[in-house]
C-alpha cells in the first residue's frame, strides 16, 4: 500500500509549528509552556545528547564487531536479474556494463543472470553507447516512456521485463568483482532475510578534499553503522547501489515507490515494517564514484534529507505503532530524524545566542553541567575509539579526519533548511523536484582492492 500524502502535510505542519514556536519564544521575557515543549534549551540538549549517544554507541559496536570472514563461494544458484537505471550516464555507463557482464555467476548451462539497463530518457550519448555495447555483450536495454520521472519509476519498469526470482540493483557508476553475485546470493541462502546490501566503497576517494570526506563517511561511519544494525537487530538499510532482494517480497510490499526521492530508504522501511529482514553483506563490495564538486554534493544531500523527511512523514504511524521491536523502532526514528533534530537544535541554539548577545532576556533552563559534560565526554570517547579501531590503530589519521568531518558538518546548516523548504512546498503543492547525482569520468579501482 502506498503511503498517504496527508502524512506529509502532518509532518510539514509540525515543522512549521516548531519554527513558529522558536520565533514566538524569542519575545522579550517570554516563557510559556509552548517554549518548554518545543524549544527549551534543556530539550535541545537532551535531544542532542540522546541522538549523539545512540549514534556513538552504534558506531562503536560496529567498529568492535569482527567483520565476516571472506569464505569460499558456492556454485551459482537462483537466476538473478541485475537492473541498472541510467539517465545521462555517458561518462560511466560503459565501464559499469562491462564490469557487470564479467561477473562469474554461471552453471554448466551458462550464465545464471541477466543485465538490464533502463535508459530513463537520456539526452546525452547514453543510448548510443548502450546500443553499441548490446552488439558485443549480453545486455538488455529498456527505455522508459515519455513522462516517466525518477529512479523508482525506472526500476518498476525494469521489474516488469526481468526474468529472475532475485533482483539486483546497481547504479550506473557501479564496479564489482567477478564474485559479487556469488557472495550476495550466498548471503540470502538459508536465512530469513528478504534482501541484502553490499558494502559500498569509493573508487575516486583521493581525487580531492570532498571525495576524501565522503570516503571518511563510508569507512568510519556508514560501514560500522550497518554492521551494528545487523548485530543489534536494527534497521539494516538498502543503499540504492549494490543491493539484492527477493522478487516476491518486493511485489508483496508494493514495489518501488514512484513518489519517493530516496527510494532505497523508503523500500528499506517497508521491508522491515512488513516483518522482513535485510542483511548487510560486507564481504561483497560495490565500488562507486564520490561526488567531486561541492554544488553537486549539496544537491545530493538536499535530496537525501528531503527524502528522509518524506519517509518519516509517510511511515511515522507505522513506525510508532507497527510490529517492530523497540530497538528497531528507535533506530528507524533516529535514522530518519537524527540529522534534522541535530541541525534544528543547533539553529535554535544559535538564535538564542544571537538574542542573548543583543541584550534581550530569554528565560531557559539548561541540563546540569556535569550531566552534559560527562555525557558529551563519553560520546566523544566512543567515537574516537571507534575511529581508532576502523583506522587500525593509525592514531595520526584521526586529527585530519576530525578536521575534515567538522568542516563538512557545517553543510547541514545550508542543506537542511533548503530541504525543509522543498519538503513543505512539496507537501502543500504536490510538486516534487528530483535531481539525480551527477557522475563524471571515473577512476578505475585497483584490482587488489576488489
Bulk shape: globular
Q: What helical percentage do the residues reach?
A: 40-55%
Largest sheet: 8 strands, mixed
Poorly predicted runs: 28-40, 441-450
- The N- to C-terminal Cα distance equals 39 Å
Taken as a percent bin, the fraction of beta residues is 5-15%
Rg, alpha carbons:
23 Å
Tell me what the structure shows.
- This protein is an alpha/beta fold and 450 residues long.
- It has 2 domains: 5-65 and 325-429, no CATH class; 80-292, Spore Coat Polysaccharide Biosynthesis Protein SpsA, Chain A (Alpha-Beta Complex).
- 54% of the residues lie in helices and 12% in strands.
- An 8-stranded mixed sheet has the order 5-4-1-6-9-8-10-7, sandwiched between helices.
- It is globular, with a radius of gyration of 23 Å.
Quick overview of this protein structure:
The protein is of the alpha/beta class. 54% of the residues lie in helices and 12% in strands. The chain has an 8-stranded mixed β-sheet, with helices on both faces. Strands 2-3 form a two-stranded antiparallel sheet.
Amino acid at each position: 500500500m502506498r503511503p498517504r500524502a496527508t502524512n506529509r502535510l502532518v509532518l510539514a505542519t509540525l515543522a512549521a509549528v516548531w519554527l513558529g514556536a522558536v520565533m514566538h519564544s524569542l519575545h522579550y521575557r517570554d516563557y510559556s509552556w509552548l517554549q518548554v515543549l518545543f524549544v527549551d534549551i534543556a530539550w535541545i540538549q537532551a535531544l542532542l545528547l540522546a541522538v549523539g549517544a545512540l549514534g556513538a554507541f552504534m558506531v562503536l559496536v560496529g567498529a568492535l564487531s569482527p567483520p565476516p570472514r571472506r569464505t569460499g563461494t558456492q556454485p551459482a544458484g537462483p537466476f538473478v536479474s541485475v537492473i541498472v537505471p541510467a539517465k545521462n550516464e555517458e561518462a560511466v555507463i560503459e565501464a559499469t556494463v562491462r564490469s557487470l557482464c564479467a561477473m562469474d555467476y554461471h552453471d554448466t548451462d551458462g550464465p545464471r543472470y541477466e543485465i538490464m539497463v533502463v535508459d530513463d530518457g537520456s539526452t546525452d550519448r547514453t543510448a548510443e553507447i548502450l546500443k553499441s555495447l548490446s552488439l558485443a555483450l549480453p545486455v538488455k536495454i529498456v527505455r522508459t516512456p515519455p513522462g516517466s520521472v525518477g529512479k523508482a519509476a525506472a526500476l518498476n519498469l525494469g521489474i516488469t521485463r526481468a526474468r529472475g526470482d532475485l533482483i539486483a540493483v546497481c547504479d550506473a557508476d557501479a564496479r564489482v568483482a567477478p564474485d559479487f553475485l556469488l557472495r550476495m546470493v550466498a548471503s540470502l541462502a538459508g536465512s530469513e532475510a528478504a534482501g541484502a546490501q553490499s558494502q559500498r566503497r569509493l573508487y575516486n576517494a583521493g581525487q580531492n578534499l570532498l571525495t576524501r570526506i565522503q570516503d571518511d563517511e563510508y569507512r568510519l561511519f556508514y560501514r560500522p553503522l550497518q554492521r551494528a544494525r545487523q548485530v543489534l537487530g536494527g534497521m539494516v538499510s538498502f543503499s540504492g547501489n549494490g543491493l539484492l532482494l527477493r522478487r516476491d517480497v518486493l511485489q508483496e510490499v508494493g514495489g518501488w515507490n514512484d513518489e519517493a526521492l530516496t527510494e532505497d530508504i523508503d523500500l528499506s522501511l517497508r521491508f522491515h515494517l512488513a516483518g522482513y529482514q535485510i542483511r548487510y553483506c560486507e564481504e561483497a563490495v560495490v565500488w562507486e564514484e564520490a561526488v567531486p564538486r561541492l554544488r553537486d554534493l549539496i544537491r545530493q544531500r538536499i535530496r537525501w534529507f528531503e527524502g528522509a523527511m518524506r519517509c518519516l512523514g509517510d511511515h511515522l504511524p507505522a513506525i510508532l505503532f507497527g510490529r517492530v521491536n523497540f530497538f528497531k523502532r528507535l533506530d528507524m526514528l533516529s535514522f530518519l530524524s537524527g540529522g534534522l533534530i541535530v541541525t534544528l537544535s543547533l539553529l535554535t541554539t544559535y538564535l538564542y545566542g544571537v538574542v542573548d548577545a543583543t541584550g534581550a532576556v530569554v528565560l531557559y533552563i539548561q541540563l546540569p553541567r556535569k550531566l552534559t559534560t560527562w555525557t558529551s565526554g563519553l560520546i566523544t570517547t566512543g567515537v574516537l575509539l571507534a575511529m581508532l579501531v576502523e583506522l587500525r590503530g593509525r592514531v595520526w589519521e584521526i586529527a585530519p579526519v576530525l578536521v575534515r568531518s567538522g568542516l563538512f558538518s557545517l553543510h547541514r546548516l545550508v542543506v537542511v533548511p533548503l530541504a525543509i523548504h522543498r519538503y513543505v512546498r512539496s507537501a502543500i503543492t504536490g510538486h516534487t523536484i528530483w535531481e539525480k547525482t551527477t557522475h563524471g569520468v571515473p577512476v578505475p579501482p585497483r584490482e587488489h582492492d576488489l
